[in-house]
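Course assignment 3, question 2. Fill in each field.
Student: A.L.
Task: Predict the tertiary structure for the chain below.
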Amino acid sequence: MAADLLELGQLFVVVAVTGAIALRVGLSVIPLYVIGGVLAGPFVAGRLGLPYVENGEVVTLFAEVGIVLLLFFLGLEFSLDRLLESRTRITRSGVADIAVNLPIGIGIGLLLGWSVVESLLLGGIVYISSSAIITKSLIDLGWIADPEAEPLLGTLVFEDLFIAVYLAVVTSLVLGGDGIGSIGRSLAVAFGFLGILLVAVQYGNRLFARVLDVSGQEAFVLRTLAVVVPIAGAALALGVSEAVAAFFVGMGFATSGHREKIEHLLTPVRDVFGAVFFFWIGVGTDPTLIGAAAVPLVLAVVLTTPAKVVSGYLGGRVYDLSKRRSLRVGVGMVPRGEFSLVIAALAASGTTPIMREVIPAFAVGYVLVMSAIGTVLM
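Answer field:
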């Protein structure tokens, strides 16, 4: 217990120092949190014989809460009615996004002689932008109130919904399920759970409002967490993305009449756990393994950075933004993060060396590079 507490203390020291450096030099804190995690983790500090933070259960659990709260706050920016009203634009920008970016990753894999499943995994990693990093950057840079925020958030919504289907399919392929039947069951569970959440969001306004109808700030915060965290946990237990579930819960609270109070009281909580999430990305990164994936990594960075800018630009034009604002949407979509790592973790449970070694090494290097490039471009 004492060792765990010391590690947690070291984590917060590193996060505080890297955050201070980011503020001093005027950069986003996100890539520095990741780099801090790399330096303080077992693969750098540990190999140098220094005290280090392990990628253990406590840090992983805190990181899970971080991604849940980041996506919950993203959901607060959308009501279901607003989502339905913008469905045409969201679909058009989302289709442009997937049509430009997913084939690039699949093509790189096939070019290197990988199997179709391995290439499909690579395609997902390079396609999906980081909802957590982009949401955090929008807030930190003050873009959340700008016109660029709507196409950015709309495209992220499309990606998050698509990734729920994608994960159900590739999970069955990687784990060797019984073909179409296994994929069908996974999709049925995912859509069933998310369908229940959508019904709750649509018709549970009074329930969401009554849950938070309490005067004390402590009780208010605890009740909010008592709704979003268990639902996200249930989703994860059923094989559904906890981040997507948290997003839907956020949409439910968006029309409860308590949105501003939630943002006021839970923003510090979100930022603390969010910092741990980005630190956790670094802790799990072994810099020496990135070299094994150098070829696909270089290809992916060179090809997918401008590709995301182009697809984001097209999304901005769908929302009738000016060329300059559309370009800002494009650079805003560049960061990759949590879902890329989720796909990599799934690949690591596969049977081939490329799945178990190359793809995870590629993913951590790719996320580190793209999160840095994306936040600096923004």
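Instructor remarks: The chain has one domain: 68-269+287-364. Residues 68-269+287-364 form a domain with the Na+/H+ antiporter like fold fold (CATH 1.20.1530.20).
Grade: pending
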